[in-house]
């Protein structure tokens, strides 16, 4: 009985193994390559699949999702003979599992080597400055070459990104010094421009202030002159309306004489010849002349009129 039990156990195990090899479950966004006696038979898609056990075998399982592969820094020589290290990142997706399995032995390694050679060809035609400022151009050119070359492998390159471009240390130091000098230059220019603008605004302000001050002074002088003219006109009209005689004018003339002599700087006083006429008019006004009934002075005793003298 024991040999029969052993045989039954072996048969059960074989059936279980056969069932496991017969039923193949493929995850979503994946594919599997089936070979029969080493020859490609079909591609298994996502879901439950049935294969012939011990005859069909799963050659390769491929992820159909978009993959991201970073490549290590690669030294590249620019057109001006400078070595820069460039890190690249490739975004790719397998579109044909059969071609990715049989058209190339290792598509990841093939993509990496193709990326390096293409990158060296592109950077070799650019100088350092253009390399540092033309990332989009390099990405587009690199993607076009990779997409065209990997199409027959059943792979589509969606994006290519340059993660880092590192020039030599000496070049980095020179670039930092140049950038610092440019920043200092821009700062000096901005400072000078600010000072210039401030001086312009100050000059404009002083100009406007001087113009306004001159206009104010001119307006004030015009108003003063107009006021003085009005005052003179009013006084003249008042005098004309009062009809003054010679006596009143003589009295006013005598009142103005002390004011003429005022001031410490007046060392020379000229007595006008009309002073006698003014005195005659004033004496007639107060009744001291011959017409007022007073005794007339003898002709020989009248004072002799003297010419004005200069002291």
Mean of residue pLDDT?
79
What's the helix count? Answer: 8
Which oligomerization state do the chains in this entry correspond to? Answer: single chain
Q: Classify the beta-strand content into a percent band.
A: 15-25%
Biggest sheet: strand arrangement: 3-2-5
Helix-and-strand structural type? alpha+beta
Largest sheet: 3 strands, antiparallel
Backbone CA Rg: 61 Å
Give the termini distance in whole angstroms: 177 Å
Tally of DSSP β-strands: 8
Can you give the helix content as a percent range?
Answer: 40-55%
Any overview of this molecule?
There is one protein chain. With 311 residues, the chain is an alpha+beta fold. It is 54% helix and 21% strand. It has a three-stranded antiparallel beta sheet. Strands 6-7-8 form a three-stranded antiparallel beta sheet. A two-stranded antiparallel sheet has the order 1-4. A hairpin with a 5-residue loop joins strand 6 and strand 7. The longest helix has 74 residues, at 169-242. Mean pLDDT is 79; it is low at 288-311.
Fold topology:
Blueprint: H1 2-22, E1 23-26, E2 30-36, E3 39-44, E4 47-50, E5 56-63, E6 67-77, E7 83-94, H2 97-102, H3 107-123, H4 128-133, H5 135-150, E8 155-166, H6 169-242, H7 246-261, H8 275-286
Antiparallel strand pairs: 1-4, 2-3, 2-5, 6-7, 7-8
Q: Could you write a compact summary of the structure shown?
A:
The protein has 311 residues and is α+β, with helices and mostly antiparallel strands.
């Amino acid at each position: 009985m024991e040999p029969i039990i052993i045989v039954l156990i072996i048969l059960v195990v074989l059936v279980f193994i056969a069932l496991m090899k017969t039923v193949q479950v493929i995850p979503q966004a994946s594919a599997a390559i089936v070979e029969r006696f080493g020859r490609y038979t079909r591609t298994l898609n996502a879901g439950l699949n049935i294969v012939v056990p011990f005859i069909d075998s799963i050659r390769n399982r491929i992820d159909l999702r978009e993959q991201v592969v970073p490549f290590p820094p690669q030294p590249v020589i620019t057109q001006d003979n400078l070595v820069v290290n460039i890190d690249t990142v490739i975004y790719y997706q397998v579109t044909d599992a059969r071609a990715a399995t049989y058209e190339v032995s290792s598509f990841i390694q093939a993509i990496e080597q193709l990326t390096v050679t293409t990158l060296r060809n592109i950077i070799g035609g650019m100088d350092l400055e253009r390399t540092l400022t033309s990332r989009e151009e390099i990405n587009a050119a690199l993607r076009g070459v990779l997409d065209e070359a990997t199409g027959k492998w059943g792979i589509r390159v969606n994006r290519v990104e340059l993660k880092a471009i590192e020039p030599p240390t000496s070049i980095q130091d020179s670039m930092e010094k140049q950038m610092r000098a440019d920043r200092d230059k821009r700062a000096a220019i901005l400072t000078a421009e600010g000072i210039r603008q401030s001086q312009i605004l100050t000059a404009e302000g002083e100009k406007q202030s001087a113009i306004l001050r001159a206009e104010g002074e001119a307006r004030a002088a015009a108003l003063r002159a107009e006021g003085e003219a009005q005052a003179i006109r009013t006084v003249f009209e008042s005098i004309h309306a009062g009809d003054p005689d010679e006596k009143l004018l003589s009295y006013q003339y005598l009142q103005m004489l002390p004011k003429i002599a005022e001031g410490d700087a007046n060392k020379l006083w000229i007595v006008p010849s009309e002073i006698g006429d003014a005195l005659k008019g004033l004496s007639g006004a107060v009744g001291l002349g011959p017409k007022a009934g007073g005794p007339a002075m003898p002709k020989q005793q009248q004072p002799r009129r003297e010419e004005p003298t200069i002291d």
